[in-house]
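go over whats below:
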Amino acid sequence: MWLSSTAGSGNIWSMLLPFVLMFAIFYFLLIRPQQKKAKELRAMLNALQKGDRVTTIGGLHGTIDQLTDDTVVLKVNDSTKLTYDRSAIKSVIARAESAE
C-alpha cells in the first residue's frame, strides 16, 4: 500500500508537466510579445505632439493640429480638420521640429 501512494504523487507531477510547458510556450510566444507591442504603442501615443505627421488606423495621413488627453485634431489639407480618438493613431511618419 505504501508503494502506491508514492507512485501516485510522482504521477501527478508527470501529468502537470505538459500543462506547465504549454503555459510557458504560450507566454513566451503569444502573451509577452503582445504586451511588449502594447507598451510601445502606449509610449508612441503619449509622445504625440502638435505638428507630427501621422497615419490613422483607417489609412488617413495628416498633421496633428490640436491634442487633448483623448482626442487628436488632424489637419488633412489647408482647410480640412478632422477629429479622431487618440487611440486611432497607428504610426508617426515624421516628428515635428522642436523649437530650440
Q: What stands out?
A: The chain has a mean pLDDT of 88.
